[in-house]
Write a structure and sequence with these properties.
The structure holds two protein chains of two kinds. In chain A, helix 2 links the parallel strand 2 and strand 3. Chain A has 14 helices and 15 strands. In chain A, helix 1 packs across helix 2, helix 1 crosses helix 7 and helix 12 crosses helix 13. Chain A is globular. In chain A, the strands form three sheets. Chain A has a seven-stranded mixed beta sheet, with helices on both faces. A five-stranded mixed beta sheet of chain A has the order 10-12-11-14-15, sandwiched between helices. A two-stranded antiparallel ribbon of chain A has the order 1-8. Chain A is 41% helix and 20% strand. By secondary structure, chain B is an alpha/beta fold. In chain B, the strands form two sheets. A seven-stranded mixed beta sheet of chain B has the order 2-1-3-4-8-7-9, with helices on both faces. A two-stranded antiparallel sheet of chain B has the order 5-6. In chain B, strand 5 and strand 6 form a beta hairpin. Chain B is globular and about 50 Å long. The termini of chain B are far apart. Classes of the chains: A alpha/beta, B alpha/beta. Chains A and B meet through helix 3, helix 5, helix 9 and strand 9 of A and strand 1, strand 2, helix 3 and helix 5 of B.
Chain lengths: 363, 258
């Protein structure tokens, strides 16, 4: 059944999580994601689901680990300074290969930065922000509907790959109200969580008591050696890289210039593409849905076809590094970064008109 | 001990390994009493009949290493964070029995935040803290619980209150919180203290079974290697240095939180 409503992106996180049968949420107040935490506090307990306001984001991430160990679909949400606090826990969750979802509503940094939007957490999400060289899937919505849909995809990918998945939103997507169709999306079956902690008695016939180690006591590791364990993680990341790349193309078929943007900047680019097409300019948009794994192959192909690129991102120029890696010097890459905001303040945005202006210069 | 003698002792149940222990860790130091705390926990879980529902969360350090060999669902986690994991599992799966085992550094230094937060929320979990007055695993550094004047790797001139602060009283602190159902401090340096400590841990566990509130027990444990004393000398040191600073007994024991 589809239910239509008019909500913020931050609340769409909640509706999507509920549609995905999320059982528990652990969160700490931080702007600009407070609507998410408030939504779960309001909507979860009355449905018999778990909401805990934590003592800090380190508390959130470790409760998330506990909830995942219990075999439940669980999530947390935060913004950038809280995301920094979560990195140790993220490393442990990645080490223990636990499925869970983290919604990150990016704000301006570094430090306390601003409580308004930005896209400055690209590196810390796509590279594994904590210690130990792990990777996590990163999904980037650009609208309220995409937020709701990608939260559900995040839970699915987390379960099938036994990995934490990050939903990377931003202050604009999170606090914009749009119409939303709430509906459970069926992605297919997920494996049973035979490893989940429910007390030995309940799963005795299968595996006896269970142990999860995130290191420290090497003899407990279920892999014969430390290196074989690291090799297993590496192979898993490679498999995800090979199978889970997702992106959206808009007017890209014959494009001579391809804008590349995620989050709210993808919306600005889409509008700029419409403006350019109205003038007969062959411009398109490539919107990565997965920031990791990054859609390198399609960019490489477009570069080989002689396509130029304009990377638009509301930060210092971070994703452009992945584009450079994909292009390998085959094509021209241009960058429109935070200096392209319509106001030089924390409230400034990269507007469609500014992107169109840049497009005009390049074609 | 000869195999024949060991067989006799086991046969007559003069000594035995608790049934929950699947193996004995080969790397515990001689005279370490962290392992004794784990033994008591293993016995209490079986005696209370909750071992089949139990999930154990083990902090970083020596304190809970033996719990990794128990036949229960068990995991280690980030340093100081066991109360967070225990909270989530207990809330999502209320039929499980949750205990954490943590050292004094894990619980009262790096983990003071989650510990205080769990006390504040009155989580239905049990927290067992081993107080050996130092950081055992890393080589005997000063802990919040080091006693005044104690020489450690990071207080080589002896802990001076004006410079390095004063001993932290965890069991007394835990008793201050409204959500705490039980708080006690025991020791293992005499048979009588051992029996009392076992009673404390069992009572703390019972508070969770009865769904009253958080149960906390601090246990004073010997660390011969880092105290640079023999196991026997350690027992005297606990009596003379630790117990005067950290009095034994129950600090809170209630059956209902109003």
């Amino acid at each position: 059944m589809v239910e239509r409503m008019f909500v913020e992106g931050n609340e769409a996180v909640g509706w999507g999580a509920l549609a995905a049968d999320c059982e528990g949420f652990f969160g700490y107040p931080i702007t600009p994601q407070n609507e998410t935490t408030n939504w779960f506090a309001r909507e979860f307990p009355k449905r018999g689901r778990v909401f805990v306001q934590t003592e800090s984001e380190t508390g959130s991430i470790n409760m998330l680990m506990g909830g995942a160990i219990a075999g439940a679909r669980v999530m947390t949400s935060t913004s950038s300074p809280g995301w920094s606090l979560m990195q140790e826990g993220m490393s442990h969750i990645a080490a223990a290969e636990l499925p869970c979802v983290i919604a990150l509503v990016s704000r301006g940094g570094p430090g306390g930065g601003t409580t308004r939007h930005s896209q400055m957490d690209y590196m810390s999400t796509t590279r594994g922000g904590g210690h130990g060289g792990y990777r996590t899937i990163v999904l980037a919505p650009s609208s309220v509907q995409e937020t709701h849909d990608l939260v559900q995809l995040a839970f699915y990918l987390a379960d099938i790959h036994r990995t934490p998945v990050i939903l990377l939103s931003d202050g604009i997507v999170g606090q914009t109200e749009e119409s939303l169709d709430v509906e459970t999306i069926d992605f297919g079956p997920v494996p049973d969580k035979e490893w989940a902690f429910i007390g030995r008695e309940k799963h005795m016939n299968k595996t006896g008591s269970l142990v999860i180690s995130t290191g420290g006591i090497p003899i407990i590791t279920p892999y014969p050696t430390y290196v074989s364990y690291i090799q297993h993680l590496k192979e898993k990341y490679q498999y995800i890289t090979d199978t889970e790349v997702r992106y959206e193309m808009y007017e890209a078929e014959d494009a001579q210039l391809l804008t590349i943007a995620f989050g709210y900047c993808a919306r600005s680019c889409k509008e700029a593409v419409n403006m350019a097409r109205a003038k007969g300019l062959k411009v398109g948009l490539l919107q990565p849905i997965t920031l990791w794994p990054f859609p390198s192959q399609i960019i490489k192909e477009k570069a080989s076809q002689g396509c130029k690129f304009l990377v638009v991102e509301d930060n210092q120029g971070l994703m452009v590094e992945d584009v450079k890696i994909a292009v390998e010097g085959r094509a021209e890459i241009n960058l429109l970064d935070i200096s392209g905001r319509h106001l030089p303040t924390d409230g400034g945005m990269i507007m469609p008109g500014r992107v169109f202006e840049e497009v005009n210069k390049l074609l | 001990m000869s195999p024949q003698k060991q067989a006799i002792l086991y046969e007559e149940k003069i000594v035995a390994q608790p049934e929950l222990m699947m193996m004995i860790m080969p790397f515990a130091c001689a005279g370490c009493q962290n392992q004794t705390v784990s033994r008591i926990i293993a016995e209490c879980l079986v005696e209370l009949g909750v071992d089949g529902q139990t999930v154990g969360i083990i902090g970083v350090g020596c304190a809970g290493s033996l719990v990794m060999t128990m036949n229960i669902d068990r995991t280690m986690c980030a340093h100081g964070r066991p109360p967070d994991l225990a909270t989530a599992i207990k809330r999502l799966r209320p039929d499980t029995f949750l205990f954490t085992i943590q050292g004094d550094g894990d619980c009262m230094a790096i983990g003071a935040g989650p510990f205080i937060a769990a006390l504040t929320r009155g989580e239905r979990i049990s927290i067992i803290m081993c107080n050996n007055s130092c950081y055992g695993t890393t080589g005997g550094q000063m802990a919040p619980t080091s006693v005044s004047g104690q020489k450690t790797a990071t207080s080589p001139d002896g802990r001076d209150g004006a410079r390095e602060g004063y001993p932290a009283h965890t069991a007394e602190l835990a008793a201050l919180f409204k959500g705490t159902a039980y708080s006690a401090r025991g020791a293992l340096n005499t048979p009588a203290n051992y029996q009392r400590t076992k009673k404390y841990i069992k009572t703390a566990f019972q508070k969770q079974i009865d769904n009253v509130g958080l149960g906390f027990v601090e246990v004073l444990v010997a660390c011969p290697v880092n105290w640079h004393l023999s196991p026997i000398e350690c027992l005297d040191w606990i009596e003379q240095k630790m117990i005067p600073e950290y009095p034994l007994g129950e600090f809170k024991n209630i059956d209902q939180i109003d």
